[in-house]
Each structure stands twice: as structure tokens, then as C-alpha cells.
Amino acid sequence: MTHRNCNLAVALLAALPLSAATVKTESTGLSDERLVRIHDTIQRHMDAHHVSGAVTLVARRGHIVHLQAHGLMDTESNKPMAKDSIFRIWSMSKPVAGVAILMLMEEGKVRLNDPVSRFIPEFKGMKVAVAQEPAPGTPTTQPPAPPQYYTVPAAREITIQDLLTHVSGLGSGRASSAEIQRIARKDGESLADYIPRLGTTPLDFQPGSRWTYSPLAAFDTLGRVVEIASGQTFDQFLKQRIFQPLGMKETFFHPGEERWPRVVTAYHRNADSLQKTEKPNFLVSTTYFSGGGGLMSTAEDYAQFAMMLAEGGQLNGKRLLSPKTVELMSSVFVPDTLPGRQPGKGYGLSVQVVSDPIAAGQRVSTGSYGWDGAYGTHFWIDPKEKIVGIVMVQTDNPDRQLDRDFENAVMQAIID
Hints:
Layout: H1 3-14, H2 18-21, H3 32-47, E1 53-60, E2 63-74, E3 79-80, E4 87-88, H4 93-106, E5 127-131, E6 149-153, H5 160-165, H6 174-182, H7 191-198, H8 217-230, H9 234-243, E7 267-270, E8 273-276, E9 296-297, H10 299-310, E10 314-315, E11 318-319, H11 323-329, E12 345-347, E13 352-354, H12 357-360, E14 369-372, E15 378-382, E16 387-392, H13 401-411
Helix pairs in contact: 3-13, 4-8, 7-8
């Protein structure tokens, strides 16, 4: 290693937590010099005003080897991003909820093929919305008129597996979403108050007939299932059964006053500029614990969760799941041939699974899995390469190109 590279490696390792710094980067098969390209990648996106800043993390073979803050957490105050900055991880909450369900499955309290009505009786006898085409000559309106539909009985009940894999039709389209708006959650309500009302809404398609993302309804319902099956509130179950064993002290549904200064400002990308997002904290709550998108976390804290999965369900002597259950979680339950899925991208139990990297256009190994958040957060686990990659930003990121560029920057750093 050259003198320059040696100094660079020392600087990188000195900035990492003690548990990571005790391992030489290149002993994990990653190049110090090539890991520097992660910053170059993020810098290009900052220069293009795609994001204000980011925190990136890479772990391999059970050790964090890269943790770096880039850019700004708030552009108006010019406040630098910090490694312990807090992000709204939104849909990266879903794999956490998925693990909670799988833990209860291992205990025999939940089955994947259980009908949801076993836990929430209001979900029995649900209907499916069928779109009603407007009569010929009906004038169009701006904004579009509410969808018109009639309902038919569901061919079967929706199951826990349907919710985990986004094939339930619950909150997955115009008809269901319109009805969910009609019975919208009120301030101060809990999962116990609100979730039974979802059973009165129509499904957007026959269960299992297609894949369509359920942004909140499906995994919020799973959060309520966790409460009923465990006898604990969802937030307490996550804290006692997942966060505390893994040492995740910076993952929560509400940061509390003392942590708000570390929460990154949320932005909307508008052409080549960034605008502050209106009402970015609509899911932050002390009473309603959204399994679909309510969690906040730091890159290093979420890495403990991801590394637990990468290590077969355990980390630092604390086992949450068996290796076979992690294998099940990351198996393809929904193939890319089902309507709604993209080529090369299957879906497992709360995570997307790359079944064909070439078709998917992703530079990761076959079998890699993970998920994203609406404000641009992204993580993935590569079981073949024993890699965990996490990028935390706070800008809505519709094309997800930063995710692909980050994956490339991580994978090119593998030298062994």
C-alpha cells in the first residue's frame, strides 16, 4: 500500500466506531482506495442537486468498513451532514415489521397462510373493487372524478403472506385508496383503533392475482397482527425484541425533543433544484406505529438490523431468527412473471429479491435483497458477497438512480 493510501485508510478507520475500526478494511476483501469512489458518486448527485447530502455505510463479513457523511443535512443553515444524522426511513420500516412477523411465526403464534381475519375479524368477507367504465361521451374533469366501481366477493381471504408480499390488494390502487381516505385515521388513534376500519374497504384486485405495492395499509395491518399475537404494542415489541437485542438505540417512531436537531431536512427534487418537503413528518407519531413507514433511524443503527439478516439471523451473540427463516424471508415468493413485477425483480417476505441482476439492471449478485424508503433511503444485502450496503438521503428519489450508482460504487470496491 502506498504512503498516500495508508494515510487514507487510517483516516477512514479512525472515523469509524470502535467495533469497525478493529478490522483492517482490506482484510474483508474491500479496497480502501476504491471505497473512496463512494464519495465521488454521492458528490456527483449533490452537484446535480439530486440530494443535499447523504450518509453511506458498507459492511462485509460482519464488520463495518465504511461509514461516511457527505454534504449538508440542511441547505438553508448550511448545516453539515453527520454520521449520526437521523433519517425518516419510511418503507425501510417494512422489513423490520416483516422480521417481527417471522419471529412470531417461529414461535407458532402466526402462520404465513393464516387469514388476516384470524386476528382481525373485520377482515372476513372482504370485497374486490371492479372499475366501472364511464359512459361514452362523459366529459373529463380536472382533477379527475373519483373512481367509479362496483364490488364482488373476494375469491378467498387475504393472508399474512399476501400482506408481506404486496399481493393482497389492500390499499394498492385508486379504489381502495379512495375508500381508505374516506375512513382516514384521526389524530391520536392507535393501530387498534384504526386497522379494523380497513376491513370495510374494497381490495383493488383478487388476492394473489397481481403484485401492486401497498404503501401503508398492508404493513400497518401487520403491525396490528403483531400486537394481537404478542400481547404487546407494536412499538414495544420492536423495542424489546429487535432494537434492544441488536443495540439499536437510535431507531424509533418518534425522536423526542432532544433528537430533533439531528433529523435531516426532507427535500423534493424539482428539476435541478431542491425544495423543502411540506409536512414531512406526517407519519411521526407517539400513538400510531406504522409498520409501513413510521420508523426513523441512523445509517449505523439500521446497519445492525441488516447485518443481523446478513449473518443468518444473529448478531453479536443475539439471535432473532434462524438461518432457515432468513433464507425463507429472502426467497422469491412473487416471481417477476406475475403482473406488476419488473424483469429480474422478485419479491420475498417484506423485501425485494433480485432474481436476475442482468434483467433487473442492478450490479448486485443473484439473490441480493433489501428495500427502499420514499425519501431516498436504500439498503441491500448481498448474501453471496457477504455485503451490506446502506445509503441514507432525505430527498424523494423517483428514478432511484442514486441507488444503482451506490451499488456500483460498493461492488467495484470488492477485490477478494
